Amino acid sequence: MNRSNIEWTEVTWNPTTGCTKISAGCKNCYAERWANMQYKRGIIQYRNNFELTLSPSRLTDPLGWKKPQLVFVNSMSDLFHERVPDSYISAVFKIMNQATIHTFQVLTKRIERIRLLAGQLNWTENIWLGVSVESSEFINRVEQLKQAPAKTKFISFEPLIAPIIYSNYEGIDWVLVGGESGGRARKVEKEWVISIQKNCKQYNVPFFFKQWGKREFNPDIYDPSTHKDHPFYAKGGCMIDNKVYRAYPNQN
Asked: What is the pTM for the complete model shown?
């Protein structure tokens, strides 16, 4: 397994790698940068760099993990990419259906494909489905998510690059928010974050704030989480008004 530095998961599982950019949030894709580094190192799974690549040899990996894990599925790709065959998606789901000790977090920007595959996939309770939304322009992904058959549904507002003009979180089980990181990161504004947080509170939706991105984006210049010895260290900090918000879905 690949231990993850992504704050809201524990391990990553990549039965596919590579992707193509479809919206503004993809502009400075971290996965593309990482894939390019692995390609240069000669790692076989990244032999095609960031071109979409199926990795059947990785399909059964979760079946060998004995300890229950939170698993981010395809941190380096999008399972519902148009070039991933229906049969391959079904194969991924069959592994998740078998590996019930794990919780699988599937995050996509291509939520419209779920409707087309609805009859082919078994959405066991250990499969969470999320959509990535970077601005109000793509809020329709949330509306489509609400119609999906997954029991646990979540939204990742990351990278948050514009205000979210949306307030109906009925049917949503978890919300993640994060600013963009990296050298070319676009700024996140505090009021955008607070607006989402308030809407989560109104609907009793667990709220997880990942990071401000760059340190200069953090409205609190004294945020202690920018220090490496802080238990929730993030390069740009992760506190809102001196508090850490790292809630998870209620699975009772």
From this structure: 0.96
